[in-house]
Amino acid sequence: MGVFSTGPESTAGHEQVVFCEDRKSGLKAIIGIYSTALGPALGGTRFYPYASEADALHDVLDLSRGMAYKNALANLDLGGGKAIIWGDPDQIKSEALLRAYGRFVETLGGRYYTACDVGTYVQDMDMIHRETDYVVGRSEAHGGSGDSSVLTAWGTFQGMRAAAAHAWGTATLRGRRVGVAGLGKVGRYLVGHLREDGAEVVATDVSEKALAWARQTHPEVDLVPDTETLITSDIDVYAPCAMGGALNDDTVPVLRARVVAGAANNQLAHVGVEKLLDERGVLYAPDYVVNSGGVIQVADEIEGFNFARAKARATGIFDTTKQILELADAEGVPAAVAADRLAERRITEVGRLSTIRV
């Protein structure tokens, strides 16, 4: 499937999809802008060796739509976008490639702000910043907020607390057994918050380096060999913190947790999984709500970063999650549907104000 053979239905609902290529540096990137109804589109850049162009395009379209909803429910005056750089970052990432990508971001004239995601880091944003001002998630030395994983994990923890309050009547994970799948940038901070709150933690990761970190830093955490073992073990909460699609037709039937609340994007493999969770009595805290702490953190850079202000906003994820879960009960729909409705309502109601000319 090529650039011109994807068909109009592939980008339905998106305002703009840009394919970027710089052959000398090896850059192949796709930038997806889903909506600018609430403001410039904001979303990270994922650097990943997709199996095909079609897979890369599918991911950027899904992720950019998710960012529009995430930013809306985070109460940000920002729309939704996302980008991917196609390739193995360990093999092709270079100054020339990142700066070429920054030039393409600049050509959009502020319609899209980029940030970190899987495969990209603060130092990469600093490099991209040499070619464009439309990049957040930079280092403090370059006027940014540093590692956005800090508030991503904090916000995820707040969403998990709200889900615990809804499920068990108390906003704490103390005495609960939480399964964390993925001990990357966010998962590590999340484990710390859970342990401080008194939760028992069982975890897994595909990286031996990540497992070694856990053994050294949190020897009390139980480590299991894979996600299948994790989700079929005796856990109260499942926290997917790696790649998307963690909740699917195979995993949901064997999942033993009462609550799902994690930092990974696009946890539902396809439409309908939210109903499977609901039918099994599993309380799902929508991923794009609970993991929005990172985007709240980097968005704060646009007005001049203040960590205390950004953390206070991320703490509000507790109230947003609580509101969504209560709305789901009141309307008799899965929480994912309730979250979508709230996001769409804000995009429509606030977005229409741009038609009022001043």
UniProtKB/TrEMBL annotation:
Chain residues that bind NAD(+): 182-187
SUPFAM superfamilies: Aminoacid dehydrogenase-like, N-terminal domain (SSF53223), NAD(P)-binding Rossmann-fold domains (SSF51735)
Keyword Oxidoreductase carried by entry: yes
Domain Glutamate/phenylalanine/leucine/valine/L-tryptophan dehydrogenase C-terminal: 146-355
UniProt entry tagged with the keyword Ribonucleoprotein: no
Pfam families membership: ELFV_dehydrog, ELFV_dehydrog_N
SMART domains (alphabetical): ELFV_dehydrog
A GO term for molecular function: nucleotide binding
Record InterPro entries: Aminoacid_DH-like_N_sf, Glu/Leu/Phe/Val/Trp_DH, Glu/Leu/Phe/Val/Trp_DH_C, Glu/Leu/Phe/Val/Trp_DH_dimer, Glu/Phe/Leu/Val/Trp_DH_bac/arc, NAD(P)-bd_dom_sf
GO biological processes: amino acid metabolic process
Catalytic residue positions: 82
Keywords: NAD, Nucleotide-binding, Oxidoreductase
Family according to the record: Belongs to the Glu/Leu/Phe/Val dehydrogenases family.
Protein name: Valine dehydrogenase
Species for this entry: Pilimelia terevasa
